[in-house]
């Protein structure tokens, strides 16, 4: 006696395969920083050097070529001298080259600015221009002003608090 006809066993196989794929994807969830993509753990030198002035941005937000240009112009880093010693520059540069890019950074944004990239603009399209100018925010580059967990690498929508 058979319990499944050939069409019901095919349907069962499809449902089981889909369910298995769902669970395998779900089990990989600890590698995800937020609702948008995988998180690369920050290099300690990158985090300490870069977060001394701003949030240590997730490396996947810019392609490797953008990171390379930024690292080669540290004395003129967006109007600030962010120079580092040669060894630290090489360590951070090598890490950025190995981990830069991703699905949000397929191409370099204008001026290698994360805030001018298509992904960033699409994610923040509901933010009015005057919001960026609020004293507690100052600019779109100040992620931590609204993303309360940005320093930990999380940009989940549920953690957003826009200052008045």
3D architecture notes:
InterPro entries: Dihaem_cytochrome-c, Multihaem_cyt_sf. It comes from Ideonella paludis. This is Diheme cytochrome c. Keywords: Signal. By secondary structure, the chain is mainly alpha-helical. The protein folds into 2 domains: 1-31; 44-159, no CATH class. It contains 6 helices and no strands. It has helices at residues 6-27, 44-50, 64-72, 86-99, 118-123, 129-132. Helix 3 (64-72) packs antiparallel against helix 4. Mean pLDDT is 82; it is low at 16-36.
What distinguishing features does this structure have?
Diheme cytochrome c, globular, Dihaem_cytochrome-c, mainly alpha, 164 residues, 2 domains
Rg: 21 Å
Mean pLDDT level: 82
Number of strands: 0
By DSSP (H or I, 4+ residues per run), the number of helices equals 6
Instruction: Sketch the major β-sheet.
Output: none
Helix and strand succession? Answer: HHHHHH
**Helix fraction by DSSP (H/I, runs of at least 4):** 25-40%
Distance between the termini: 70 Å
